[in-house]
Amino acid sequence: MSTLVPELICSDIEASLAFYRLLGFRVRYDRPEERFAYLELGEAELMLEQPLARDRLYPRAELLYPYGRGINLTIQVKDVDQVHAALLAVDCELFLPLEDRWYERATDAVGVRQLAVQDPDGYLLRISQHLGTRPR
Fold it and tell me: What is the structure's pLDDT at 60?
């Protein structure tokens, strides 16, 4: 079994933790002295780190906002409307408004209810709820 767990460098771990908790993530474990936290939401897992030094796995290029340019991370949730309400309650700007979208595949289409939002460092997150499949 293979698992992909992204580790996101952040500029302010407390702000990032507050944001990810708003999305419904919980801390599985952390190392506050190292400014590190391992988070989970259902089957989604990610790590946050605010590096103490520019060593080991720190990017060689200068980090400029928005971090993570060129990727978006899809996080599947059971209730995207609940996440949407939580984001609106704190006036969080959505990158992509809440929508229902059907993506065609070879023999069918898969439906999702989704939105996209940037975290405090600009990582683009697509929050998605599976709506089912239908014939093409």
Answer: 67
Alpha helices (H) along the chain: 13-23, 80-89
* 48-66: pLDDT as tens digits: 999 876 666 666 677 789 9
Domain boundaries, the chain: 7-53+65-135
Collect all residues with Cβ–Cβ distance below 8 Å to 129 and sequence separation of at least 6.
Answer: 76, 77, 78, 79, 80, 81, 112, 113, 114
Q: Considering all CA atoms of the chain, what is the largest pairwise distance in Å, rounded to the nearest integer?
A: 52
Taking only the tens place, the pLDDT of each residue in 28-39 is 999 999 999 999
What's the topology of domain 7-53+65-135?
Answer: 2,3-Dihydroxybiphenyl 1,2-Dioxygenase; domain 1 (3.10.180)
Contact indicator for 37, 47 with CB cutoff of 8 Å: yes
